[in-house]
Design a protein that fits this description.
The chain is α+β, with helices and mostly antiparallel strands and 173 residues long. It is built from five helices and six strands; from the N terminus they run ααβαββββααβ. The model has no long low-confidence stretch (mean pLDDT 88).
């Protein structure tokens, strides 16, 4: 992948549909749902400001490595497959080093499958509380799980354990 391809994919990622939150049943959770409906457009700025000021720290890449995008697919094709399966752009999530896109599949108001695709074709994912339902637990990574078998059900043959030779040692910044 050359820099022009990376720039194109980065621009294309911004057009992906946002992940949709599942409407909760209880009144208390519905209040959170309404709050996040209002707050979400501002969250990225608040997150970035808190990180820039050093109030909240987030560095590197989280655990739960899943593999690399298979050589026979472009990053755009890979991400499109995930969107077709119900994953949406999770733009409120932390930004990790080299990240191209953060996607999530919302199981219910409380839990989500969160997947990140990086510019070097690496894929990482975990199962966790949604920030909308349990913001503090989410931020502190309480009960975060690997759930590798479930992710591999989503990903199938489009992920491999090692990068293809032509992508080794390649990082597009």
């Amino acid at each position: 992948m050359n820099l022009e391809d990376a720039s194109y994919v980065e621009a294309w990622v911004k057009t992906l549909p946002a992940s949709k939150m599942v409407r909760p049943v209880t009144l208390a959770r519905y209040a959170k749902y309404v709050f996040w409906g209002f707050y979400t457009p501002y969250h990225s700025r608040v997150r970035d400001a808190l990180t820039s000021l050093g109030i909240v720290k987030h560095e590197g890449r989280q655990d739960f490595f899943l593999g690399f995008v298979a050589d026979h697919l472009s990053l755009q094709e890979f991400i499109s497959r995930l969107v077709e399966q119900g994953f949406g752009n999770h733009f409120v999530a932390w930004r990790e080093e080299g990240e191209l896109v953060s996607l999530r599949y919302v199981e219910n108001f409380e839990m989500q499958y969160h997947l990140r695709v990086f510019k070097d074709r690496e894929v990482r994912g975990h199962y966790e509380y949604t920030p909308e339902c349990h913001a503090v637990w989410h931020m502190r990574e309480v009960d975060m799980e690997e759930r590798r078998p479930q992710f591999l059900d989503f990903l199938g043959d489009v992920i491999v354990s090692k990068p293809a030779d032509k992508y080794k040692n390649q990082s597009v910044q």
